[in-house]
Design brief:
By secondary structure, the chain is mostly helical. It contains 18 helices and six strands. The radius of gyration is 23 Å and the shape is globular.
Length: 488
């Protein structure tokens, strides 16, 4: 009986935390504080108020929970972006995700050494931990807001791409820190191995997942479970092969994002809900592992704020400005991208890796990263909508559409396409009768959540959702007309 009561208490705390998260998500529409910040700080406060929570939330247990959460979030983020959106901004996403991670890590490490006097190895670990941005925070901050132009795709793509890169870099740095005869060549070798294997496995997994998702199962509820199991397999196999499982999962999600499959809408809805739950678990769990008394000791919190200022106001603007220089963006878009590089669960997870590996100054690294992340989520995350308005970045609140009209079919409707008109697409602003559709025709338009009849005189607007019936010969033409134009 005692065991039942104790377990019931754990269930009560977890369920209560989830209920609080749901209530706060409603309040965030009025109070511009990201939910991630609330979970993180609340967890840290509870661990100090109730020290017995540490017995149920050791850093090793939380690390495993957060790894699973990040896998779920990365796959969902990859599916949300899709190959078409990723391809339209592949240059800035790739440069910020790869070179930006290295550049930010180096800039933060140099700044910590010069300003705070830490050893180079400790500074390198801090820089590697704080280099990646975080997809969970980005999705939490944006919520139901849609950012116009390419900045939305770049921010989301960067946050998904640099997480696996940052994790691979951190693991290589930890091996360097714990090696008696380590050199920077070890870091580069381990990083190159992890990213190349992860990329290769992710591409193969994405190609294999597409036909797998089209195989029939006896129940509709099993289709999302199958993709979830596939995520675990992709991560596990890649990691066992000494590759970046996180990168493989993200790449696989991108490659299946635009593919058509049975119950695709249900699969996406399931993974989106699971990613939201993973965000709560990640930030709440990581908060429980933070010792606020240690953070308050010896002015560590002030040093953490100095590191945060270094990341936000020096490293990110310096590295980001250089990498975005050749990209065709206006001044407001550049500044918004530089301000929108939010830190979150992944940097704290990377610091947790350092603690588990028992590197020198591990507790100090963990505390500094926690303060820097809390600053980023609270200050940057809270001001992202304000910054968008001041910089002229279009941002609108997407109204929920809880009602859907659907027709169940036994086989895939190969001749029916659902497209969302991109702002830079060839069809944007044109009348339907002026489009070169071939044998295709527009059956229905949904604009701002309301269906409207498709007439020849109807002028299409960016954001319109269209249901198009097209023959095999006209599908490529239709996709070209409504997709975003590719830019360097």
């Amino acid at each position: 009986m005692h065991e039942i009561i104790r377990f019931a208490s754990i269930v009560l705390v977890v369920a209560g935390g989830l209920a609080f998260a749901l209530a706060w998500s409603r309040l965030t529409e009025r109070i511009p504080i990201p939910a991630a910040a609330v979970f993180l700080i609340t967890g840290a406060a509870l661990s100090d108020i109730f020290p017995q929570l540490e017995r149920h939330a050791s850093i090793q247990t939380v690390e495993r929970v957060v790894v699973v959460a990040v896998v779920v979030i990365l796959f969902d983020g990859g599916m949300h972006i899709g190959w078409r959106r990723f391809r339209s901004s592949v240059v800035p996403i790739s440069s910020l995700g790869l070179l930006g991670t290295f550049g930010t890590a180096a800039a933060v490490a140099a700044g910590c050494h010069l300003l705070l006097g830490f050893g180079w190895t400790t500074c390198g670990l801090i820089g590697a931990a704080l280099a990646p941005t975080d997809p969970a925070v980005m999705f939490s901050v944006l919520g139901r807001r849609e950012v116009g132009g390419r900045t939305d795709t770049i921010l989301e793509g960067e946050s998904g791409a640099n997480d696996p890169v940052g994790i691979a870099l951190m693991l290589a740095m930890i091996q360097f820190a714990n090696s008696s005869h380590g050199s920077f060549l070890i870091v580069l070798r381990e990083f190159a191995l992890a990213t190349s294997v992860g990329l290769a496995f992710g591409i193969v997994a994405g190609r294999l997942l597409v036909p797998l998702m089209r195989l029939r199962l006896p129940s509709a509820g099993l289709y999302p479970v199958r993709t979830l199991a596939a995520c675990g397999v992709v991560y596990g196999v890649t990691s066992v092969a000494h590759g970046s499982g996180f990168l493989a999962v993200f790449v696989a999600g991108i490659l299946v994002g635009d593919e058509r499959a049975p119950f695709k809408a249900e699969i996406e809805s399931f993974h989106s809900s699971l990613a939201s739950l993973a965000e709560v678990a990640a930030f709440g769990g990581l908060g429980l592992t933070v010792d606020l008394s240690f953070v308050a000791h010896d002015w560590i919190w002030l040093k953490g704020l100095a590191v945060a200022a270094l990341v936000v106001f020096v490293a990110r603007p310096l590295v980001g400005s250089l990498l975005l220089a050749p990209v065709r963006l206006n001044r407001g878009e550049r500044l918004f991208l530089l301000w929108g590089g939010l830190k979150g669960a992944v940097p704290i997870l990377l610091a947790a890796f350092a603690v588990l590996a028992k590197v020198h100054d591990a507790q100090l690294i963990y505390a500094l990263v926690f303060v820097a992340v809390a600053f980023s989520v609270l200050v940057q995350g809270t001001t992202v909508p304000f910054a968008a308005g001041r910089l002229g970045i279009p941002m609108r609140l997407i109204e929920q559409t809880p009602w859907k009209i659907s027709l169940p079919l036994r086989s895939a409707p190969e001749s029916v396409l659902r497209v969302v008109l991109a702002a830079s697409a060839a069809a944007a602003g044109m009348r339907i009768r002026d489009l070169e559709l071939g044998d295709a025709w527009v059956g229905l338009i949904v604009r701002e959540g309301e269906p409207i009849q498709a007439r020849g005189t109807t002028r299409l607007q960016p954001g319109d959702e269209l249901l198009i019936v097209a023959g095999d010969e006209s599908i490529d033409q239709v996709e070209w007309l409504f997709a975003a134009a590719e830019e360097p």
